Inverse folding.
């Protein structure tokens, strides 16, 4: 039991699909399960091992499926349970695995539990949620109070996200048991694990305002693990936005970790003004980014396991955010070489593998409720339209939610009808068909990078050593085990950068986004250069 488990997720490449925007099979403008099935060979060919599906359960779609009204049904916009079973089977037939998104910090207000709960204070479901006569000062992540008055039973209910996402009360044992039943039902369908949405919040104590990493977190994670995961060969990754790197290391450490991996957000919060939230922009300081990764790599080297990600459905496109779209191909590859050279499990967010970029929409083109809310809120604070739009263009979650750009046909080959959200107009220039055919494209580069990761054990087990930590625009690190050594060089600069790397002379360049530059006393790296250099006992390394 639990022993001698093969930790397959440690060497896996995981691909996140945002089903609404991936591929539409029936021309209603909305991505769906059959659409995903039709693209499995595309993913397999890229070198993907595991697919993570953002939620496809029945939902009113207030927060694009992160508001679930029935955990055991597939929303009709995505297809049927039969489609889901087919997707699971076909994914497995391709030799890949599939994990689902699990949203159990809250439900939709249209979930039967909430409908029963609000009927009266004496409802047997009342305590599945969090109620109070008076609100306290806690704010919702999407803006405004976290409390909404419910007229029928005359109390306020608590919701850390939209008012259509009431928080579940994990302190209720019956509720926890219901959740374990749902999880086990899905695992019995043959899925290979879960990404657990904002799971850092389930141990909260609302009265004392302890939300993330609350007093009951470890107890509930442990119980969850024992009831659902411990005896199965599945993987878990917990989204934990409020968690520190230290805590992420603890939670993923040991022979029987509470979660296999954690998404924590320190590295992608560095372009925000501290404590002012995501909309207050700050220029990224590369030395800070290096420090954070350095800490993550060291803390989780023998204890715990890193998840390697730069983008997801809540975060802007990496190239628009941390790279330079004037050097789109170079900087897309550079960012992911910097990231995937590290120890941990690589996550690819759909579209990153072809260098898709963010959007500069007009306000009425945005669909994300968080974006629309913040526009209202900042307008009331008398910020100018232009100022607000600047933040929205940089940070809106819709940056990464526009339809996948498959080819240069209308609607980018995503659908035959107008999609639920506009396509990025650069699809003629940037699309999968064109990128794959380009020997210099991002897709083939990712593919080669994934192959390399699987060829050399040092990617999995090598230690991490940051070089020249104060250099403002070069991110260089070493990975080393007993037999092999890697040097990963990434330039965040649009100028030529020179550095003395004579200590590394003779190492072999195994991948680069440009012509390989030799390591020497005066190495001169062109804009957004990246490369991995290798030295090992294996002399058969060739390009
Ligand atoms: C997570 C999801 C995000 C969602 C929120 C509430 O952060 O990734 O999309 O809005 O939780 O469920
Ligand atoms: Ca569809």
């Amino acid at each position: 039991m639990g022993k001698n488990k093969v930790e397959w997720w440690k060497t896996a490449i995981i691909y996140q699909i945002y089903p609404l925007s991936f591929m539409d099979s029936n021309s209603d403008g909305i991505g769906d399960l059959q659409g995903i099935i039709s693209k499995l060979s595309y993913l397999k060919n890229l070198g993907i091992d595991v697919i993570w599906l953002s939620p496809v359960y029945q939902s009113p779609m207030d927060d694009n499926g992160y508001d679930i009204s029935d955990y055991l049904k597939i929303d009709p916009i995505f297809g049927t349970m039969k489609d889901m079973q087919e997707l699971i089977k076909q994914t497995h037939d391709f030799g890949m695995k599939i994990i689902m998104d699990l949203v159990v910090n809250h439900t939709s207000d249209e979930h039967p539990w909430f409908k029963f709960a609000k009927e009266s204070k004496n409802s047997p479901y009342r305590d599945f949620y969090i109620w109070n006569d008076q609100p306290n000062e806690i704010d919702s992540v999407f803006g405004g109070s976290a409390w909404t008055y419910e007229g029928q039973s005359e109390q306020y209910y608590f919701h850390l996200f939209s008012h259509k996402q009431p928080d579940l009360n994990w302190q209720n044992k019956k509720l926890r048991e219901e959740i374990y039943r749902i999880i086990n039902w899905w695992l019995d369908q043959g899925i290979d694990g879960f990404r657990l949405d904002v799971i850092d919040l389930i141990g909260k104590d609302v009265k004392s305002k302890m939300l993330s990493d609350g007093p009951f977190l470890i107890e509930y994670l442990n119980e969850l693990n024992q009831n659902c995961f411990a005896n199965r060969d599945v993987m878990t990754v917990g989204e934990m936005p409020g968690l520190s790197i230290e805590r992420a290391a603890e939670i993923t450490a040991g022979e029987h970790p509470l979660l296999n991996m954690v998404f924590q957000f320190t590295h992608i919060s560095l372009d925000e003004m501290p404590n002012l939230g995501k909309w207050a922009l700050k220029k990224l300081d590369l030395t800070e980014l290096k420090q954070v990764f350095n800490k993550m790599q060291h803390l989780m080297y023998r204890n715990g396991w890193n998840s390697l990600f730069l983008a997801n459905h809540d975060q802007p496109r990496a190239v628009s955010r941390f790279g330079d779209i004037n050097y789109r191909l170079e900087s897309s590859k550079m960012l992911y070489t910097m990231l995937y050279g590290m120890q941990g499990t690589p996550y690819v967010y759909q579209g990153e593998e072809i260098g898709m970029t963010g959007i500069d929409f007009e306000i009425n083109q945005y669909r994300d409720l968080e974006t629309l809310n913040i526009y209202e809120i900042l307008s009331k604070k008398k910020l100018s339209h232009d100022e607000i739009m600047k933040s929205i263009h940089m940070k809106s979650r819709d940056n990464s939610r526009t339809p996948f750009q498959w080819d240069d046909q209308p609607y980018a080959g995503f659908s035959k009808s107008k999609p639920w959200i506009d396509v990025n107009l650069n699809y003629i220039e940037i699309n999968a068909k064109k990128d794959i055919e380009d020997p210099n494209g991002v897709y083939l580069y990712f593919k080669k990078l994934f192959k390399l990761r699987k060829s050399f054990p040092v990617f999995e087990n090598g230690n991490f050593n940051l070089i020249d930590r104060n250099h403002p625009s070069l991110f260089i690190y070493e990975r080393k085990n007993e037999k092999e050594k890697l040097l990963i060089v990434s330039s965040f600069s649009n100028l030529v950068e020179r550095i003395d790397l004579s200590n590394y002379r003779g190492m072999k360049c195994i991948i680069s986004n440009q012509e390989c530059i030799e390591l020497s006393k005066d190495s001169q790296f062109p804009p957004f250069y990246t490369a991995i250099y290798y030295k090992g006992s294996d002399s058969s390394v060739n390009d």
Observations:
- The two ends are 43 Å apart (CA to CA).
- The longest strand covers residues 484-491.
- The longest helix spans residues 173-188.
- The chain has 15 helices and 20 strands.
